[in-house]
Design a protein that fits this description.
This protein is an alpha/beta fold. The chain has a single domain (2-125), classed as Rossmann fold. It contains 7 helices and 5 strands. It has helices spanning 7-14, 20-30, 39-45, 53-60, 69-82, 87-99, 108-117; strands spanning 2-5, 34-38, 63-65, 102-104, 124-125. Strands 3-2-1-4-5 form a 5-stranded parallel beta sheet. The protein is globular and about 40 Å long. The chain starts with a strand and ends with a strand.
């Protein structure tokens, strides 16, 4: 299965005081799941790499998907249709739609709205 992580999912792993979030990530890896992190999501959460060992290890096990000029119009148009303004949420939703991926997000309502605006249904989970 494919998964897209948003910043909330990565923050939950990074700040996890118990091992549930880390264990869930490890289980997905062991199952052979593909975990995708859009580059702008990674940029949102990496603040002090030297002090974010768990986050940096997690990102190494993920596919960091680039954001380039080909994404600009689809993301902007999605924001216009949805009446929302969070560029990163739109990138997460677009990535999930393109990659046929479930989304692990701390913002399930907005992600579902954006997916719905594209006429796409994907599994949306909270960390």
């Amino acid at each position: 299965m494919n998964y897209v992580y948003d910043s909330g999912a990565l923050i939950a792993i990074d700040r996890s005081r118990d091992s549930a979030q880390v264990a869930g990530h490890q289980e997905r890896l062991v199952a052979g799941d593909r975990i995708i992190v859009p580059a702008p999501v990674a940029a949102q959460v990496v603040r002090r790499p030297g002090r974010q060992a768990r986050l940096m290890l997690t990102l190494r096990s993920c596919e960091v998907a680039p954001f380039d000029g080909s994404h600009v119009s689809p993301v902007g148009q999605l924001l216009a249709r949805s009446g929302t303004s969070d560029v990163v949420d739109a990138i997460v939703a677009l990535t999930a739609a393109l990659e046929n991926a479930a989304v692990l997000t701390s913002d399930p309502q907005d992600i579902r709205l954006l997916l719905g605006m594209m006429g796409v249904r994907r599994l949306v989970l909270q960390p």
